[in-house]
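User: Predict the complex with adenosine-5'-triphosphate.
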Amino acid sequence: MARIELNEVAHSYLPKPRTDSDYALKRIHNVWEDGAACALLGPSGCGKTTLLNIVSGLLGPSKGRVLYDGKDVTALPPEKRNIAQVFQFPVLYDTMSVYNNLAFPLRNRGVNETQVRERVLEIADILDLTDFLKKRAAGLAADAKQKISLGRGLVRSDVAAILFDEPLTVIDPQLKWHLRRKLKEIHEKLKLTFIYVTHDQVEALTFADQVAVMYEGEMVQIGSPQELFENPQHRFVGYFIGSPGMNFLKCTLDGNHARVNGTDIKLDAATAEKGRNKKGNFELGIRPMYLGVHTEPGDNRVKAAVRMIEDQGSNKIVTLKLGNSTLKASVFEDRPVPEKTAYLSFPPEWIRLFADGWLIK
Ligand code: ATP
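Assistant: Here is the predicted structure with adenosine-5'-triphosphate placed in the model:
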């Protein structure tokens, strides 16, 4: 396994890039520690696959260097980097049995048959493929085929890292949950360096200890799922993580208050202090689950109009209008929700302030 380092990496698909927007990857400076379970999370087109291809060697970066355990591998092709890759769609030999498919990467490296057998049986057991080992891959369903692809990626224990590019796309939703848990278990057991690309936050947050959120060719935040949820460093992270995402309200600051559409919202002393020395366009951020929705007015409650209530079973998502701004609140199923007018409370400890899109620290 290896520690993988990206040193000032940038990439443009244009022959003569001029401005920042000509770069699919703007400036990536990052280290994935040996044995880490990392996810690259971001919307379509933010540069995830480009970055993964630079790590694997399928693509050479326009700028910067890639280091494996301190050794510069930027100019090395994939086969010299000793990595395994699992792609979005199954990559296997249809005419071979499942056993032979799993054994292939090991036999290719000259591993002896006793060890091949041991490892294939172990991986087949982890992925629930034991009953299929004698079957030909051709006749199997798409999700079973993708499990074989995963198995082929996992079977070698001597790789520097395993790179996964949206590997669960073709898998049924129910099985997806199961496989996500499996991958986490496998990581804990085998201690391999996993880099996992996805646009699905649930997939990233359940799988990885460390998630890098990408936006327009940059890593805007790297952190644990809890850090990303509680302290998003950029408004994009707040919006992208969580369902629904964080609410953002344009505001001005006045002493210990944020003023939103002429209404004052109380801040805690530390947050107000952080904002005092800052300039820029301010926004107040609060997660839907922390926004209090009440039927009666009260201290530090703000009047808002109820626009929609969506019942999600265990909770309700309430859409509200505060002046020109739209807010979402997540309310437990058994809590009353007013039909027309609600009184909102903003717990100061859950208010985050942003200036020009970035969290004020
Ligand atoms: P997706 O989830 O849709 O695959 P992504 O986050 O993996 O998206 P990339 O595929 O890395 O993003 O694409 C990043 C940017 O680079 C996009 O603007 C894309 O159009 C562009 N791009 C990707 N591959 C090429 C290519 N071969 N030639 C030119 N532009 C490309």
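The first strand starts at residue 4 and ends at 11.
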